Amino acid sequence: MVTQITTSDAERKMLSDAGYADPAIDYYIEKKYMGHIVDADQVSEKVGSCGDIMKVYLKIDDNKLINDVRYEITGCAGAISAAMAAVDLAKGKTIDNALKITDGDVFNVLKNIPEKKHHCIQLAVKTMHKGIQEFKTENGL
Fold first, then answer.
1. How confident is the model at residue 7, as a pLDDT?
2. Buried b (16+ CB within 10 A) or exposed e, 75-88
3. What angle do CA 103, 21, 7 make, to 5 degrees?
4. H helices within 19-102, ranges in order?
5. For residues 38 and 58, what is the distance between their CA atoms, to the nearest angstrom?
6. pLDDT of 4
7. Of 3, 4, 26, the residue nearest 15 (C-alpha)
8. What's the CA gap between 49 and 31, in Å, rounded?
9. Phi, psi of 138 (to 5 degrees)
10. Does domain 7-138 have CATH number 3.30.470.20?
């Protein structure tokens, strides 16, 4: 008898074996904040030291409250899971409070990713911070 394994089960096992915790795996598989916002208030992009590319789209209400965030990412599972976790931390916060989000905050949400992927967390946070700072500058805030 052959056991049928779904793609997400196979991915989940591979990521788990590589050192990703369940929350990080869920973010990677679900990719619930991937894509773009057509009428975004700010779009910013950053390239990581490993060559991963992140583009962040911000929808900000009344020049202060983050209503929505989306990322487009050319990168690995670490980059995708880190960006998705960063969105969960930023949505509903003021732009000033979102600027206080740290790499450690994202890591705590993910629970664990391989050490060699910690730079992905930094990229996700730096990309979001860059977008917020550019929004503030362009809007005189």
1. 64
2. bbbbbbbbbbbbbe
3. 120
4. 22-30, 77-90, 95-98
5. 10
6. 55
7. 26
8. 22
9. -65, -20
10. no
For residues 29 and 17, give the distance between their C-alpha atoms in angstroms, rounded to a whole number. Answer: 15
Region of residue 52 (left: phi > 0; alpha: psi -120 to 50; beta: else): beta
CB 31 within 8 A of CB 70: no
Q: Would residue 111 be called left, alpha or beta, if left means φ above 0 and alpha means ψ between -120 and 50 degrees?
A: left
* Contact status, residue 69 vs residue 44, Cβ threshold 8 Å: no
For residue 29, what pLDDT is reported?
94
**Domain ranges within the chain, ordered by starting residue:** 7-138
What residues of the chain score a pLDDT lower than 50? none
For residue 6 the two structure tokens come to: 């779904």
Retrieve residue 133's tokens: 């700072």
